Amino acid sequence: MPRTKGDHEARRRDVSEAVWRVLAAHGFGGLTMRAVAAELDATTGLLTHYFPTKRDLVAYALDLLEVRSDSRLRRTAGEGMSALRAALLDILPLTGEATVSNRIWVSSWDAALGDPELSVDYARKYARSRDKLRDLVTAAQQLGELPPGDPARIAAGAQSHVLGLVVQALFDPEAFPPHRQIELLDDYLATLASPPPTGDDGHAAPT
């Protein structure tokens, strides 16, 4: 009986789930054709139908990770600072699902750094994230919740802050449990919302 398009799509979903389970358990360092085949209870020959090379497998895994991250349930928020805070909280490993996703993202950095094409793609991904944060910063400034300033620069600082928290929380979860991550983020946002100190002449004091 000939295989149908539905059979192909179902098999591709099975492969995707197997790739995801390998990533969750072993990170990108453990992502091999053999590991995915074993998880799928199939042969490596079957996998070459979907991924002719290891690089194809890695590229697919990165796309799968992005799709999974984008489809994750996001916090609802209003406008301005509350929306900015919600977007930054969504990045942090505050839940089991978010922790797994972040562990995979961080483990993928080595693969991306070792491949110029993937490095460029990653730079674009982070740039798109900064653009979204920039728009939220601009909205908060328009509402008077943030002082004037370059929104792109503020967004870059906010992204850098939460990515630093991600790394620390993954390596030392006891020192950076969810409640402390939230406290540190709120402390950072409070400094953004505070106007810069001024000198005697009323201008911003040098830092």
Brief synopsis:
The protein is mostly helical and 207 residues long. The protein is 69% helix and 0% strand.
Please give a handful of descriptors for the protein shown.
207 residues, mainly alpha, 9 helices, 0% strand
Question: How would you describe the overall organization of this protein?
Answer:
The protein is mainly alpha-helical and 207 residues long. Helices cover 69% and strands 0% of the residues. The protein is built from 9 helices and no strands. α1 (5-26) crosses α2, α4 (54-71) packs antiparallel against α6 (96-113) and α5 (81-89) packs antiparallel against α9. The longest helix is centred in the middle third of the chain and has 27 residues, at 116-142. The mean pLDDT is 86.
Q: Tell me the Rg in angstroms.
A: 21 Å
Span of the ends, CA to CA? 74 Å
User: What spatial form do the alpha-carbon principal axes imply?
Assistant: elongated
Average pLDDT for all residues: 86
Task: Determine the fraction of residues in helical runs and give it as a percent range.
Answer: 55-70%
- By DSSP, the count of extended strands is 0
The helix/strand class is mainly alpha
Q: Give me the number of helical elements.
A: 9
Strand content: under 5%
Largest sheet: none
H and E string: HHHHHHHHH
Low-confidence stretches: none
Please give the structural blueprint:
Blueprint: H1 5-26, H2 33-40, H3 44-47, H4 54-71, H5 81-89, H6 96-113, H7 116-142, H8 151-171, H9 178-193
